[in-house]
Design brief:
This protein is mainly β. It has two domains: about 5-200 and about 355-370, Beta-galactosidase, Chain A, domain 5 (Distorted Sandwich); about 215-350, Beta-galactosidase, Chain A, domain 5, CATH 2.70.98. Helix content is about 5%, strand content about 40%. Strand 1 (about 15) and strand 2 form a beta hairpin.
Length: about 375
């Protein structure tokens, strides 16, 4: 099958090549532009729905241990929910995922100010980050796997970030029930960059209650404590002897309820973990986390090339978000595994650098595998 025939004109019809399928349908209008929803499906009974608005993962439907399929991410039923969203459900995050203290940072002796949207912080790219862009979408099926390539151009100065930045994100649904997300970017001026996806998972199914009985294991012996503004203090501390020790499997609720000061500051877990990469090259794909839900029997494995992972337990879900299933999202109803560089890295020279120079290529891969 040629590339042209694999992609086709799309519209509302499904295209196949081997076992994978992908289709699209209108999902509403934003600022006079049609938003499309793409549905990727494999032969294992798994499907993935992505919007070209914000690159949002709206749903991931996957079977449980008993053969029952359900959506295991939090999301809205229609575009209006996402237009008023304050939670970043399922969105692509950029230019800078997580927080920059005061929105201020320097490159080559020049100080820049990113847009402030969380008190004194710049969070997840500012007021109009990548989560509210309509991305150019190119669907295809390659080697039997459905894929969606999203591209956008972030102009010089957007949200306080220098350089004209070209970004490409590709979602691929594999036959082994894994979702591979590949990020690529280039710039014409020195800039800072940190990209991630902000899906909230609940392996028992959307609207099924809290994730406190989910069992988490992290490949991380250290983490970065935060101050009262949720900005890293700059210290990298061992997790041993703390509620953040997930080096052996531990229920999320057992840690969250421990009463430690760091948990009180964040109202739960909202911390960056330093992934162990001993014996691995910086660009290698390594296991970061494994989460198991004892109710459904579903297990989620996360692999990444990134040096860190932000574990967030939905601490600021307050019941004002009505999910596609009709239930409201309350505190602890979902967890995020945000693969990333560390928060506030532009102001923390001891952290891995997020500086991207002209002529360099940003390249990052994360895999979410269900079993």
């Amino acid at each position: 099958m040629s590339e042209r025939s694999a992609q086709g004109s799309f519209g509302d019809s499904a295209k196949t090549n081997g076992v994978g399928t992908i289709s699209s349908e209108p999902f509403g209008v934003f600022e006079g532009r049609q938003v499309q929803r793409f549905t990727l499906a494999n032969s294992g009974g798994m499907s993935l729905q992505i919007l070209d608005f914000g690159g949002i993962i709206q749903s991931i439907v996957v079977p449980d241990a008993f053969g029952t399929s359900d959506n295991v991410v939090l999301g809205y039923a229609d575009l209006d929910g996402y237009l008023h969203d304050q939670t970043y459900f399922g969105a692509l995050i950029g230019r800078y995922a997580n927080r920059i203290a005061g929105g201020s940072y320097s490159i080559g002796g020049v100080t820049y100010k990113a847009a402030l949207n969380e008190g004194a912080n710049s969070l997840h790219g500012g007021v109009r980050g990548f989560n509210v862009k309509i991305w150019s979408a190119t669907p295809s099926v390659e080697d039997g796997d459905p894929q969606l390539r999203l591209t956008c151009l972030s102009p010089d100065g957007e949200e306080g970030y220098p350089g004209s930045l070209s970004v490409e994100v590709t979602y691929a649904l594999r036959a082994d029930n894994s979702i591979e997300i590949h990020y690529a970017a280039s710039t014409d001026k020195p800039t800072v960059l940190n990209l991630t996806n902000h899906s909230y998972f609940n392996l028992a199914g959307q609207g099924s209650g809290s994730i406190y009985d989910h069992v988490l294991r992290l490949n991380a012996a250290s983490y970065t404590p935060v101050d009262h503004n949720l900005i890293p203090t700059g210290v990298i501390e061992p997790v041993a002897g703390t509620p953040f020790d997930f080096t052996t499997p531990r229920p999320l609720g057992a840690s969250i309820r421990s009463g430690a000061e760091q948990l009180a500051i964040a109202c739960g877990i909202d911390h960056n973990f330093v992934l162990d990469r001993s014996g691995a090259g910086n660009a290698s794909l390594r296991r970061a986390a494994v989460v198991h839900d004892p109710r459904s029997g579903r297990t989620l494995e996360c692999l990444t090339t990134e040096p860190g992972i932000q574990v967030y337990t939905g601490n600021f879900l307050h019941g004002d978000a009505v999910l596609a299933c009709g239930e409201t999202a309350r505190q602890g109803d979902g967890f995020c595994l945000e693969t990333q560089h560390f928060p506030d890295s532009p102001n923390q020279p001891q952290f891995p650098s997020t500086l991207l120079q002209p002529g360099e290529s940003f390249d990052s891969t994360t895999v979410y595998r269900f079993r």
